[in-house]
Design a protein that fits this description.
It contains twelve helices and eleven strands. The protein has 333 residues and is α/β, with parallel strands linked by helices. Strands 6-7-8-9-11-10 form a six-stranded mixed sheet. It has a five-stranded parallel sheet with strand order 2-1-3-4-5. It binds adenosine monophosphate and manganese (II) ion (MN) (2 copies).
């Protein structure tokens, strides 16, 4: 990426009084956090801002209900049809915008802000830092370039994105600059302990029950992934219904399944109650590039955390995935 992309992004944001923000479907902490952070900053600059995502249900995931800037959100049905400036967050490709994907062609300018290695650069201006731990960190770089202050209101959603995508500062993406950024965010006085508790340590009793159920049905296949091992489980729409859970409530299941040391790769297949499609989450421990594997199956993500969507039945989807994992080269670790 050229430095002029950053300059072009600053110019676009300065010159537009109305800005439409969109993040990827079924938003996680980084998608929502990075979008709200820039949205609040733009509103502080006196601009008209709307923000949304293109999947149902249009409900704030429980962990993010306390974030500032939620009043910027509008349902996809109220999102401008042809915005002068569309800004996308944490979105590696146009299809990840779901119902808002058509706004990319309809907008006059599209600014893509992201950190996915698989990003397709679908914007008219692309600010993509593939080394960044979170899109939220890229937003702070932009705000610094614009000489905008990092207020506590902005810092809270940024921290949400950073803590989500680094797994609470545990993943390899946690560089010294991540901790320096975290220090800046904490200096604004944000309730970081409460933010983390909501993300990692708070769930309904139904979730605890579901966790037991899906962990009990997990399968270990030691010979898969070229002998490195595969562990996987599935969450059906009926499971979600039984325990009154949304898809966004079960994002953390993969973090439990991937604990199994016998397996290099962990997989959770979730049936989306809205469209009936399988949302497949994959994680590896460093010896396999699951981002490349998922990209080959029509999805994307990062090297060690990636996903794809499948319209095939579960057993067929697992067969495809096993085949792709068996063929993928083992990285030097
Ligand atoms: P998840 O397993 O949903 O937590 O996603 C892990 C990573 O893979 C995130 O960076 C997602 O943005 C990305 N990802 C998940 N599903 C898809 C998909 N269908 N297409 C592209 N990227 C995806
Ligand atoms: Mn994301
Ligand atoms: Mn991200």
């Amino acid at each position: 990426m050229t430095s002029s992309a950053w300059d072009d992004a600053v110019t676009l944001l300065r010159e537009h009084d109305e800005v439409a923000l969109a993040c990827h479907v079924n938003p996680d902490g980084d998608a929502l956090g990075s979008m709200l952070a820039l949205g609040i900053a733009l509103r502080d600059m006196g601009k008209q801002v709307v923000a949304s995502w293109g999947s149902e249900p249009f409900e704030i995931p429980a962990a993010y209900e306390g974030l500032p800037g939620l009043d910027l959100l509008v349902p996809a049905s109220q999102f401008p049809a042809s915005p002068a400036l569309l800004v996308t967050f944490d979105t590696g490709s146009v299809d990840r915008l779901g119902a808002l994907a058509d706004r990319v062609a309809a907008a006059e300018h599209v600014l893509v802000i992201d950190h996915h290695t698989t990003n397709t650069c679908f914007g008219t201006v692309n600010v993509i830092d593939r080394g960044a731990a979170a899109t939220a960190a890229v937003v702070v770089e932009l705000l610094d370039l614009m000489h905008r202050p990092l207020t506590a209101e902005i810092a809270a959603p940024v921290y949400t994105g950073l803590v989500t995508d680094t797994g609470s500062f545990k993943y390899a993406a946690t560089t010294p600059s991540v901790h320096l950024l975290a220090a800046r965010l904490l200096e604004t006085g944000i309730p970081h302990d409460e933010i983390s508790r909501q993300i990692w340590d708070t769930a309904s009793f139904g979730y605890v029950k579901l966790l037991g159920l899906v962990c009990a049905r997990a399968v270990l296949e030691a010979d898969e992934v070229g002998g490195l091992g595969l562990v996987w489980t599935a969450i059906g729409a009926d499971d979600l219904d039984r325990y009154a859970l949304a898809l966004s409530d079960v994002e953390g299941v993969i973090d439990v399944v991937r604990m199994a040391r016998e397996a290099e790769v962990a997989v959770v297949l979730k049936t989306d109650p809205e469209d009936g499609l399988l949302k497949v989450s994959t994680r590896s421990k460093g010896a396999v590039d699951v981002g490349a594997v998922c990209a080959s199956l029509g999805g994307g993500g990062h090297r060690f955390a990636a996903g794809f969507t499948s319209d095939a039945p579960l057993s067929e989807t697992m067969d495809c995935l096993r085949r792709a994992l068996a063929e993928t080269p083992h990285l030097a670790t």
